[in-house]
Amino acid sequence: MSLYHALTVMDVRHETADACTFTFGVPTQLADSYAYQAGQFLTLKVPHPEGELLRCYSMCSAPTQTVNDQVQLSITVKRVVDGRASNYLCDNITPGCRLEVMRPSGLFVVNDWQQDLLLFAGGSGITPVFSILKTALAQGSGQIRLIYANRDERSIIFLHELNQLRQQYPERLEVVHLLDSLQGVPRIGLLQSLCYDMQSARAFICGPGPYMDAAETALHNAGFNADTIHVERFVSLDSATAKRDESRPQTPSDSAEASTVTIDLYGTTHVIDCAYGETVLNAAREQGVELPYSCEVGMCASCMCEVTDGDVELRHNDVLTERDLNNGITLTCQAVPKSKTLQLKYT
Ligand code: FES
Description:
Elements: E1 4-16, E2 19-25, E3 41-46, E4 53-58, E5 66-67, E6 70-71, E7 73-78, H1 84-92, E8 98-102, E9 117-122, H2 126-139, E10 144-150, H3 159-168, E11 173-179, H4 180-183, H5 188-193, E12 202-206, H6 209-221, E13 229-232, H7 237-246, E14 259-265, E15 268-274, H8 280-286, E16 304-309, E17 312-314, H9 322-326, E18 329-331, E19 335-337, E20 341-346
Parallel strand pairs: 9-10, 9-12, 10-11, 12-13, 14-20
Antiparallel strand pairs: 1-2, 1-8, 2-7, 3-4, 3-8, 5-6, 14-15, 16-18, 16-20, 17-19
The structure holds FE2/S2 (inorganic) cluster (FES).
FE2/S2 (inorganic) cluster binds at residues 293-296, 298-303, 319, 331, 333.
């Protein structure tokens, strides 16, 4: 099965001066492959004039939303200063364009919709948080507090929809807007003071790094356990590429043993050789086997699969929890075989 499919852009909506939402049409025969959970993301091949760019963007739509009886699949892209992919998409993609899109992935997801949710979003970090919020309102029963930080009022994405949802669910949804232009950059103390009465909630955080760090510390200070805090870090693929080059494997010694890796890729089996110290993703690519990936630095989980036999060592991991690792989940972009044979499975 091909990892990417050309999906047609059905709608482009300008959310703010620098953010656009793109809605894709999904043919019926691909509906299962593009089913997703709130909080997940899509990886796109952006057809830039300087060469194809791989980028991941979170869904802002919710799996509970439908258009013409089909599940809505929308991403929101915010322009990044000098960002090649985000500016290309916002400037060039119109309804009718086709883009190569990989099936949804990501671990920033909710396991229990009946729990209370404490949501922290900063800027375009609202995108996966908005998907979670809409799904929780539609199919959950808990209280939801969204703490949403932006530069100023004009940069608030989904302001109108949030106001509508607040009116629709006045008993369950509370939205706290924080604006740099009014309060300055949100500090830990302020964020901690907004955690009141939510100690039994699950917390989800997405936004710029300093905001996420402040929110995480605020939650810890407010008594939240680490395993109730979920963080989605943005991946800058330009810097990721540089980091990847630095982390190339050392040249294997002649005596070091290679591994044979058997990969079940959505039902198709591939067998590859992996040199000592080489990542599975790299070995697969060099042998012409296309595996899913986006960031290549262990931050996004789009390369995630299960180890069904053998051992691996992860060079770097910013996304899998202790529990994921204990359940045999791994990242092929960072996984180096530690056993003579290894079996992996994508589901
Ligand atoms: S490709 Fe992003 S974690 Fe492996």
